Amino acid sequence: MDNSSPTPTQDSPAQSDSIALETRDLSLWYGDFQALFNVTVEIKHGIITGLIGPSGCGKTTLLRCFNRVNERYGYVTTTGEMRVLDKNIYDEDVNILELRKSVGMVFQRPNPLPISIYDNVIFGMRVHADKGQYKKADYDEAVEVALKEVFLWDDVKDMLKKKATGLQLEQQQKLCIARLLPLKPKVILMDEPCSALDAEGTEAIEDLMSNLRGKYTMVIVTHNMAQARRASDECLFMLMGKLIEHGDTSQLFLNPKEKDTENYVEGRYG
Ligand SMILES: Nc1ncnc2c1ncn2[C@@H]1O[C@H](COP(=O)(O)OP(=O)(O)O)[C@@H](O)[C@H]1O
Ligand SMILES: [Mg+2]
User: I need a surface site. Which of 56, 93, 141, 170 has the fewest CB within 10 A?
Assistant: First the structure.
């Protein structure tokens, strides 16, 4: 992995123009059905990239390519190239567990494990740890740091042993983000992370995304265009499995280059 690129800071995420995620001519089929067509894209480090487009256009499919989650379906085939953090993720020596550690994912519905809040946060850490690698104090610290990073610590610090599934949905989604953090991911992929939440919950998750901005490369799928405008630095617009346009969020919304993008952002379909 290339560690020579400057680490973007929260104050200057746009400073780094290095590329975190890259595809060249990526196509994907579910059996005979082609869901992605020759997608070529470069996603920058340290910023928030929004992925928008009508339902069924391939947003989730593209997102899942970046940590090779699509492969759990045996009938998926892909062609083309994918590089994540400067590494071809189809190289033979790629360790999928390591890949998924550095590329974390958050789903539409919060899916905490039915164990305590504390155990949720350190679950990944425990799974990946060598025997005896961490002491209780290490786990305690990781829990506190991660929960503070997602603004959940104050809510739950006195109930860490309570079951995570008893939390409100918004808190559950924060927890699902928090449990990625002890693994020190470089990239966080979020697939419509607010779609199960009300307006207040949505705002809370957007606040937390902006808190994480610059520390992690984030890609967020959303069908909520207002959210894409508020929350993302750059946007990708997809239509029927193709990447139509990629640009700064304000450019893409205010001055789209492609007619299809214009139709979409003006709400004419999807
Ligand atoms: N596991 C799957 N098996 C077969 N077809 C799928 C699967 N997942 C998605 N598709 C199809 O691929 C296309 C893109 O889906 P998806 O990536 O989920 O779109 P989006 O997230 O933009 O709504 C759709 O036509 C969908 O029906
Ligand atoms: Mg989807």
Answer: 93
